[in-house]
Amino acid sequence: MRITVAGAGNVGLVTAVCFAEAGHQVTCLDTQKEKIEMLEKGQSPFFEPGLEPLLEKNLASGKLRFSTNPRQAYRDAEIIFIAVGTPEKKDGSVDLSYIYIASYHIAENIENDVIVCTKSTVPVGTNEIIKQIFQNRKPRHLKVDVVSNPEFLREGSAIMDFYLGDRIVIGADNPEAASIMEQLYLPLKIPIVVTDIKSAEMIKYASNAFLATKISFINEIANLCEKVGANIEEVCYGMGMDKRIGANYLQPGVGYGGSCFPKDTKALVQLAGNVQHPFELLESVIKVNQHQHSLLVRKAKEMFGSLKGKKAAVLGLAFKPETDDVREAVSLTIIKELLEEGSMVTAYDPIAIPNAHKLIGNSIEYTTNIHEALKEADFAVIATEWDQIKHLPLDAYIAYMKEPIIFDGRNCYALKDIQRYPITYVSIGRPTIL
Ligand code: NAD
Q1: What ipTM, to 2 d.p.?
Q2: Is 10 in the pocket of ligand 1 (CB under 6 A)?
Q3: How far is the CA of 84 from the centre of ligand 1 (A)?
């Protein structure tokens, strides 16, 4: 099929590349000229494992092309995916302006009947508004079917998630459009849920809110474990064996970050508030998460009294491993608080430094050499569970730091391993090792 994807971000680019790989003729459109220029040279503007080779291959075969020109991109498309950003506004609600602008561009440039499929995460009711935009702006003789097709990929494993996702959700009012979308996805052999548009929109928010709830829940249990002398690792193991609970997302830590969970949880609270349904549970999940972000700095303060003039090594800037995305990364809150306490920070990350630098500038030192970050540090804070950090031999902390004191926000090390070294180790929900 002739597919156009609006937005060459984490979702749009992966969608475009993977549908081209599946044999479709794909055009990926973005408003950012520099992004498109990079992509035309086969370079991805962000890091995603396995993406660049597929990008190069499908560019070379002519299955995939890039454009900044809406007319060229939309004119003869049969399916258009909207995968533009839906960032958070100051009040926690969703900025839908990119969605609406993309819809205007589509309406003004199509020359064929088309299915417009919203992949971006949008509040319940948004696709109704998109439908009205087409009603008002499309050429009269053309038919536009609007379908909700929320995306569930995870950065860092996005390509794998495209091929091996748990489900595909298609929300449609028109069974014909739903059936075309089903055909498109059928070769992936992933279970497909066909439902109405509003339920599809809600499935995405409810899923992210539930996962966020699981994280905040286990973090609260971890904090409780510390107070009563239990070990969260044992607790998670025992809980996760219950199939009704499951072991996924039962990892305690410094809380969730990233470009989705923080904004999607707040958007759902807003959405609930708009219909006079205070979502108190989710409000608590958000509050617990924010509190958890500060946990390690609070613990460091408790240990040192004051952090003024202390040199801190922050290990990991990306919001999770295998990505260079730092949007809402917990590392940024940790760094901000350390600087407020008067610490000097050197941050290590294998790939996310350029993106972090755009947000926090030269207020800290950066290095891609983990030993360099640890050199002469008074304490280390682990913010991201990169393999490079998890597999760092523990004697490196002893060799490079002033004193080997680790605040591990991702429980990267087994306590029994730490116990073999003269290291002070504070982690989440487990006994401190002095
Ligand atoms: P992103 O910010 O990485 O990319 C969005 C892209 O859209 C940008 O490159 C921007 O220039 C482009 N854009 C904006 N207006 C445009 C227009 N009118 N026409 C063409 N391009 C335009 O965003 P993302 O992380 O890919 O997320 C996209 C959507 O998918 C969001 O709603 C997000 O919540 C959702 N989502 C994201 C993830 C994820 O892991 N990133 C996962 C699932 C769902």
Answers
A1: 0.99
A2: yes
A3: 4
